[in-house]
Amino acid sequence: MAESLILLTDCDLPGDAAERTLRAAGLRAVRAPEATDDRIAELGAEAEGLIVQWHRIDGALMDRMPRLRMISRLGIGYDMIDVAAASERGIAVANTPSYCIEEVAAHTVALIMAQARGLLAYDRAVRRGEWRAVAAQPMAVRPSRTTISVLGFGRIGSLVARGCRGLGFRVLVADPYAPDEAVRAAGCEPVAIDEALAEADILTLHVPLTADTRHLVDAAAIAAMKPGAVIVNTCRGPLIDETALVAALHDGRIGAAALDVFEEEPLAAGAALRDAPNVLLTPHAAWYSPEALQDLPVHAAENIVRFLAGERVDAIVNPDRAVRGASADVAPTSR
């Protein structure tokens, strides 16, 4: 274990907590000074583990690192890693699914409430010298008369659903993997996605980004929603077709949006979303708290430490891979 090299391909977080965690376990830790395929392949030629934030890790790059046994993602989503290619090569892939559950759920509910109660419009009106309670935009709802549709009932989606239900909203949940009894136990109603879209006054997204979910909310989905509905996304930007969303905001088909994630990040200075009406934008910040910032790199490093020690790693997302020289004592991540 002392001879194992772990490479951090890229990381824009402050500090060196990941490296310190690895070194404390007797592993060698190296951070790539630049995130290019050639540099990563050069530095990672002997690497048994990678810690990845944003760099794309595909099969061709994996093939240039013949000793690689695990890839650990700095974050919950892992769409930048070709998991199928990793599985074919016997490489474990893990994420860090629990470091910011409370933060993202709280941020989501905050965005929902800001739009549901017209807080942005109220604030701007007061600053202009106006004092009109009945001028809320896009809405000022009574929760018990308002339907929130939650797409995805995993760690974060279920917490959002319970929080909204606790505030008195009617909550619909669309998730083919969530047992109906679990959804009902939370006081929510299990439905198919078509019903969730059609009934939503407010739609919030909590599903992973895959080939099947890319542009899940497109022009057709928007057309199926109520006129004036609100869309909230703190999950992955490409779940929404931003061109279709901008058009729907301008023509009033969608009443408002609250977005923390975008198809391209950072959001470009000339992005059409910046000029769309009734949009609340935050800079992929839903995950952030000082505690989450501290936990994230440590959790990513601990995945590798435990895996190379032959211990159980609950965060592995491809437990059915053909194992390459490592313990198979792993469990799939729970949704």
From TrEMBL:
Pfam families: 2-Hacid_dh, 2-Hacid_dh_C. Keywords: NAD, Oxidoreductase. It comes from the Bacteria. Belongs to the D-isomer specific 2-hydroxyacid dehydrogenase family. Residues 32-318 form the D-isomer specific 2-hydroxyacid dehydrogenase catalytic domain. The keyword Oxidoreductase applies. Residues 109-286 form the D-isomer specific 2-hydroxyacid dehydrogenase NAD-binding domain. The keyword Amino-acid biosynthesis does not apply. This is C-terminal binding protein.
